[in-house]
Structure formats: structure tokens, C-alpha cells
Specification:
This protein is of the alpha/beta class. The protein is built from 5 helices and 6 strands; from the N terminus they run βαβαβαβαββα. The structure holds 5-nitro-6-ribityl-amino-2,4(1H,3H)-pyrimidinedione. The site of 5-nitro-6-ribityl-amino-2,4(1H,3H)-pyrimidinedione (INI) has 16 residues, from β3 and α3.
Length: 155
């Protein structure tokens, strides 16, 4: 008989760190709003959410690491928007942020989720920040909540 294990979407009792980039804040403010709203709608408490602002997405892993190692949070949610310019600058940022965040999940054992929009234009970013392609902040928050509860069952 198969035993199926999954994490419920219940944020009650959990504490959340959110790290968000100020670069492209027209977009990232919408991601934070989506993240906080998602936590509260899933039974979480907004007094158990800390939001740390960093200059740009490149700085996200450093602040996320400090939060993840502090022992104060059930999960850390990383939010940013890297929009392709006329150079390859964005590629360096994207690869460092993604691998930095993945490294933190392995190192700390808590969910550190990736809510960084990577796209070609401001229009595509708006679509992913509450527009027609959803909200990356909501997605990263649901992943964090699900993983918190899954990990409780796997331990
Ligand atoms: N930071 C972003 O979050 N998004 C971008 O699109 C972006 N671009 O395109 O340059 C960006 N750059 C800043 C970078 O993240 C660092 O803050 C900066 O390089 C200082 O370390």
C-alpha cells in the first residue's frame, strides 16, 4: 500500500522571512503584497512576517542566508525581478541568485523559495506580478507553506 505524503497549505503557527529587491520595485512591491496576502489567507499571522529590503536581486542570497541561519523563520521567501537589458548582465544575476538560493536550502534545511521573475520586458514582468500570468510572490509563498508542512512529516 502506497503511503502518500504531502504538505498542507496551512500557514498557522509558521514564521516567515521575506527578502525583496528594491530594484524594479514597481514589480517587487506587488510580489510582497501577494506573498503577505497568501500567508494571511492560509491561516498565517502578519505579525509573524518580517520583510527585508535589499538593493537588487544580486543581494538576495546574502540577506536570505542571514535570515535562514537565524533560526527565527520556518521559511524564507525570496522576491525580485530581473528584466533583460541590452547586455548579458541579467544572466550573471540570474544564475547567481538561483544557485545562491538553492545552496541555502541545502545548507539550512529550511525552505528558501525562489520568487524572482526573470523575463525580457516590463510587460512580461507585470504579467507575472499579479497580471495575466499570475503572481510569482504568491507562487513562491505557496511553495514555502507546502514545504514547511511536508518537511514536518518527513522528519
Ligand atoms: N537587479 C535586479 O533586481 N533586477 C535587474 O533587472 C537588475 N539589472 O538589470 O541590472 C539588477 N541589478 C542590480 C543588481 O542586482 C545589484 O544590486 C547590483 O549589481 C549591485 O551588486
Amino acid at each position: 500500500m502506497t503511503r502518500t505524503i504531502f504538505g498542507e497549505l496551512n500557514a498557522a503557527g509558521s514564521t516567515f522571512g521575506i527578502v525583496v529587491s528594491r530594484f524594479n520595485d514597481l514589480i517587487t512591491r506587488r510580489l510582497v503584497d501577494g506573498a503577505v496576502d497568501t500567508i494571511v489567507r492560509h491561516g498565517g499571522d502578519d505579525s509573524k512576517i518580517d520583510v527585508a529590503w535589499v538593493p537588487g536581486s544580486f543581494e538576495i542570497p546574502l540577506a536570505a542566508g542571514a535570515m535562514a541561519r537565524s533560526g527565527r523563520y520556518s521559511a524564507v521567501i525570496c522576491l525580485g525581478a530581473v528584466i533583460q537589458g541590452s547586455t548579458s548582465h541579467h544572466e550573471y544575476i540570474n544564475s547567481q541568485v538561483a544557485s545562491g538560493i538553492m545552496g541555502l536550502t541545502r545548507e539550512t534545511g529550511i525552505p528558501v523559495t525562489f520568487g524572482v521573475i526573470t523575463c525580457e520586458s516590463m510587460e512580461q514582468a507585470l504579467d507575472r506580478a499579479g497580471g495575466k500570468v499570475g503572481n510569482k510572490g504568491v507562487e513562491a509563498t505557496l511553495a514555502a507553506i507546502e514545504m514547511i508542512n511536508l518537511l514536518k512529516k518527513l522528519k
